[in-house]
Amino acid sequence: MTMRNTIWVAGAAMGLVLTTVAAAPLMAQQAMAGQTAEQQLSPVAHPAQWPLLNLKRKPDPKVEARVDALLKRMSIEDKVGQLLQVDIASITPKDFETYKLGSILNGGNSAPNNDELAPAPEWLKLFDAFYDASVKRTDGRPVVPVIWGTDAVHGANNIVGATLFPHNIGLGAMRDPALIKRIGAATAAETAATGIDWSFAPTVAVVQDDRWGRTYESYSEDPAIVASYAGQMVEGIQGVVGQDFMKPGHVISSVKHFLGDGGTGGRDQGDTRVPEAVLRDVHAAGYRTSLEAGALTVMPSFSSWNGEKMTGNKSLLTGVLKERWGFDGLTIGDWNAHGQVQGCTNEDCPAAINAGLDMFMYSGPGWKQLYDNTLREAKSGEITAARLDDAVRRILRVKVLAGTFEAGRPSSRPTAGKFDLLGSPEHRAIARQAVAESLVLLKNNGSVLPLKAGANILVAGRAADDIGVQSGGWSITWQGTDVKNKDFPNGQSIWSGMDQAIRAAGGKATLSTDGSYAAKPDVAVVVFGETPYAEFTGDRPTLEYSPEDKSDLALLKKLKAAGIPTVAVFLSGRPLWVNPEMNVADAFVAAFLPGTEGGGVADVLVAGKNGRPQRDFHGKLSFSWPKRLDQYVLNKRDPNYDPLFPIGYGLNYAAPATVAKLDEARPAVTSGDQNALFTRGRAAAGARLETTGAVVLTRTDRSAQEDSLRLAWSGTGKGRLAVEQAMPIDVSRESNGQLSIVVDYRLRTKPTGPVTIGMEGGKTATVPVGGALTAAANSWGTMAVPLHCFADGGVDMKKVTRSFMMETAGKLDIDISGIRIASAPPGPVSCGAN
């Protein structure tokens, strides 16, 4: 019997219900009949072909009259100001005394005092300062308070001490819409405690290619599952229309990313090339329920549909969203996304406003230029008075409905300052339940689970005692990196939860990251998985787990060779090809990214003194699991698609089943991660190392034999190391996303002359980095140079031919183990000021 048949038999034994998207493809096929290929891939939507929505939130004449009265008293300068939302790293409260902008946000790496670990009171204090400046005016024109938006995507995840819930991919495995609403409400309450009044959530992407670095932000590849959750999450965040809608403790919701962000072929900010029927029937599923639930804002996507950027697609933003669907809230751009619309820059984009964007999201020093250009275009009529008023009317409507005008100073609001809501016992209990319900049991040969009462359990693996890894990206920091357990004061690691449960059952638990032990354990639990990432850095070339580092597999093999039954707890933001690891383990649990309540894992894995665990496995896959590492090339809705585990698969204790040995064949693949410029001894695919002038290149060891470069500049003239691309690469999205060139280095002798790092694409730009080489002699350190430094220097970031150049004319001895495009580590990062 094949593996697929074994799984289906097991599924039948469990009474498994497999949710599918068969109806959607059938509708798409019918709509495609008789169309040419060119028509099928047009970027122009036909609103009449989209279903009408039954919106719970109806127009309120009193609200409309108030909005109209405000609008009549506003100057054109006031109106244009409302169209701008600016990152707090780019603007100060003092600026709001002159510029009455509509909103601020904290980007992924932005925080009060430039401190991502800033305590909650500092967030509230800063919002007070912005608010006070926004309402300070003496010219008689209307006071329109500023609102603050934040990415609270799995809890109030920027705030130290907040409850972090499982990321969406895990929540999708729960199949529990009621719990989703409770999670939304808890997230809103913790967000409101800091005064912040707008959450950029939920993400309702229907991801079709799991290589995408934002897969974990999707509830499912099945639009039906996404639709069942989206409206519930909006009601949790905002409250229920006609009941507690936008009452204290609720915040504004923003549904994102409109539209088709999950279909870009695994590339962030890519192009979803599908017929309109697929866009409508698959990718729009979550918008129908979330808009019907009363969502106040929608965020257009960075990505394109059939070659046209969504932020500039009038047929969808205006034709479908606003006119056909009747959405009367505001559309908020993504991070400088308007600058990618044809004919636009970050500082000038009337095309986006004219297409239906209501508010720019801007980061950078040029926000005053964006304001000035937009004001000029509004005065000249390039942005018509009607379109300007429509955009401002929508912004004012949201602020009126959200109670912004009555709410007063952020710190005076009913739930603001109640910091005991952060990580409260009630919210942690909700998160713990979500963790337990989201776990999916993929294998349990020999019934090694549940872990028996009184057993001697070894808990091993690099992620066992790491709350940051189990929480993933968007966890205090944007990429979720450079955080420690102490940065989650209300969190619990998986190890800590296991230890408590095992001891409570009369057993013994020992933590050993490397799997070593003094006395042979009865069972080993190995916790391992992906290190945290967010967009850009999370994109992968294949679905193979950790292709460059097989230490986790080696640990599992070591324990198996010792005759120890082994349970693998796998942490990941997507389904991955882990056939070798699964073959070695006796039991395999997909835990996805559970967040800060590691005890939820123990609730399912560990039996109590009565021999039964607190919970049986409940989770069912919301994403199919790949049979091969290159299986992303298949259409998941194709009837011939043959995954290892289908959507809906998940074993439990009540109905055990055996999983046969899996195929470990590794087909050859040609794609690579272009952003890993040099890693583990190799340049990125399609690149080579080049040295010129007075520098000698040899090899040395860091983690493996000859995995690092040893460079010696003689000081007798200029010498350069470069990573040269065979074909130009496009890193414009990474540059816009505030990523950096990050270099892992060891300084053997200090430089005797200026050292620069450069990039070439059309033009060459360099940045002095001598002052950034701050690691102690012969110790490994990291330095970073923002990509925008090179863009500002004239490099064409869409056509980079040399992605890294290091040059000096002085004497320098340095080892380099890694060069990558990634989020910069904490600390000063600038264009040479270091």
Describe the structure.
With 834 residues, this protein is of the alpha/beta class. The protein is 28% helix and 18% strand. It has 24 helices and 29 strands. The strands form five sheets. Strands 10-7-5-4-3-2-1-11 form an eight-stranded parallel β-sheet. Strands 18, 19, 21, 22, 24, 27 and 29 form a seven-stranded antiparallel β-sheet that branches. A six-stranded mixed β-sheet has the order 12-17-16-15-13-14, sandwiched between helices. It is globular and about 80 Å long.
Short structural summary:
This protein has 834 residues and is of the alpha/beta class. It has 24 helices and 29 strands.
List the defining traits of the structure above:
single chain, seven-stranded antiparallel sheet, eight-stranded parallel sheet, globular, alpha/beta, 834 residues, 29 strands
Strand order of the largest sheet: 10-7-5-4-3-2-1-11
| Alpha carbon gap, first and last residue | 63 Å
**Main sheet characteristics:** 8 strands, parallel
Could you report the average pLDDT, rounded to the nearest whole number?
Answer: 92
Percentage of residues in helical conformation: 25-40%
Structural class: alpha/beta
Shape: globular
Q: Helix tally? A: 24
Mind telling me the C-alpha Rg? 27 Å
Question: Strand portion, in percent?
Answer: 15-25%
Count the beta strands: 29
Poorly predicted segments: 1-36
